[in-house]
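Go through this one:
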Amino acid sequence: MAVNRAQLLDEKYLQALAELPAAEPRVDLDAPVRPGSPIRGRQALAVFQSMVESRHLDLAARELKARNEGYYTIGSSGHEANAAVAWALRPTDPAYLHYRSGGFFVQRARQVPGQTPLLDVLLGIVAAVDEPIAGGRHKVFGSKALNIPPQTSTIASHLPKAVGAAFAIPRAKRLGLPLPVPPDTIVTCSFGDASSNHASASTAFNAAAIAHHQNLPCPILFVCEDNGIGISTRTPGGWVQARIQAMAGLHYIGADGLDLVEAMEAAAQAVEHCRSHRSPVFLHLRLVRLLGHAGSDVEQLYRSLPEIEAAEALDPVLASARQLIELGWLSPQDAIDLYQDARERCLALCDEVLTRRRLESAAEVMAPLSPWRPELVAAQATRDAPQDRREAFFGRLPEEDRPRHMAMLINRALGDALLAWPNALIFGEDVARKGGVYHVTAELSEKAGLGRVFNTPLDETGILGLAQGAGSMGLLPIPEIQYLAYLHNAVDQLRGEAGSLQFFSQGQFKNPMVVRIAGLAYQKGFGGHFHNDNGIAAIREVPGLVLACPSNGRDAVGMLRTLLGAAAAEGTVSVFLEPIALYMTRDLYEDKDGRWAFRYPAPGFALPLGEVQAWTPWEEQAAWEGEEPPLPLEGGDLTVLSFANGLWMSLRVARKLAAEGIRCRVVDLRWLKPLPEAALLEEVARTGRCLVVDECREHSGIADELVSLVARTLPGTPVARIQAADTYIPLGGAANLVLLQEADIEAAIRALWGA
């Protein structure tokens, strides 16, 4: 018969205390908990109570699982001393918590009136909609009132955004911007020893250390909860300490987390240093993991019974009770009564949470995923700065300039964004003095200042972490990822972190951002697969994320303004994919015709999400002077759906075929996620035939979804697709062997028209 180790641990606590003698009782709760300690008796007792309650949450979770009513048994047993860190912090200090930081969560709730942490955690375990942070979507430690943004099953992926928040607080203060927290706030994040080896952790440590090296304030408190093992993989003894102490820029403090008073003293020291020096601190708490990785973990498969029993003998809840009894702050019976009271309250709450409703529909599950209220977005998207400020910034107003290529118009739009939103920041690799590889951000740092337009280390994970942290502190981040292929180094920061925050907090926490990415293919004379990447599947699979891709400068300005408006109004996370090969393109049909250069649309112009642009090249209705595309005619023989470079090539092919009487209605999708389904279906219905021209490689674009949509919604409509080959892109002229060409588009149109 299997041994119930949770029951054994429970029984050992009661048995051990029943055998302890009582010491001379201490009555002055404001006296030092032990001679020479700055910790008061009442403080240690409060932290101990949080530890006990955290332990009983773990036992209750296993009880609910045994009833087949609970869904989460990764517990905090052995880690309860992280309650000492919460005690040392202020409840206004944002905390990004590891999934074993139950003691921290309970202790912080003790610092804020009106909180019900035991009920809240148990509601999460049974996935009840009344759970106040995630609403039954996941069991997380999170609370708006407690300044704890929810994290899911974090493997250090939350550390970069915690550093971003710590960096953003003094940056906002320096810029004179309002903050949602006091200006001397520090940020903390907790994680395990195994997670500290993850690349995301290295990014965070490096980002904090390099900020400190440059004398930039970054008040981040790293809390490593070191139990020596990650699931079944042991961390080499002494490794965490040796690694961090050898790293410049991190102030290391180590402590025995199995000694309650030592843990509190170390936590207080770490917090004071971080707050007063405004610099990174690494608090290393040596702990123990009890009851396995989770309730489903068969620990005996990789740990011997003597090892398991040795760990249980170090039980910090029991050790802390003994310590307080020996010091006279508790009698053995007091410690037993406190423990049993916590048990009774947790078991009663188990019965209570089982009466609460669960999520009942897909719509209810998805409700917080990506709110978009068009009127609020539009109001922000058309935001303007005073005319005198624009004149001082630009000199000559950009709307008074001649038609320009896309790169120039995006530059002007970013300048307007900095003026319209004082909280906007532009950052990334080379964006400051150089102005980016393609000079899209040229002169912005000189005009707006290095406090608002600045370079970052060459680390995409760090860039997106900074964006999340800055967004959570009330700023409007506009990070740049230098090339589309570079995003894949850090895509989990979009998928697992930024994109999920509103979902797992029911919109209570937001990290708005507009991520600019130079991408797609067709560069001439400069290429290879890192600089010509035509795969967007990793972006499009992120739930709730908006993906915009302009084909020309005028649209780029209008779409960028809408994304910024959505970030400001709704906290939207979006990607603005800028086609590199069209940055400098001025011509369309013939050399020097200037038909792909546009005038800068003045503030007040924005392109709403879901609005497409139809082109009818067989007969332009009005003179085209680069201000607006020609108005589309009705009808046509065939609808071409495309975007970016594919749109530009399709227009050229359509103009050629018009001479033969083949009238192609060419539609610029603009919005690649969510796809503008209603608008594009209307355009397909106008002609009754549809060709999808997707410049992305076969399994990483939008063609499959578009063809499926047309086939399902407009049955009987002839529909076809063409895409690039499913391969990396080679260097030089060989790239054209695997990318879509105008000849491919022409052949596909002819085949579909003749069908």
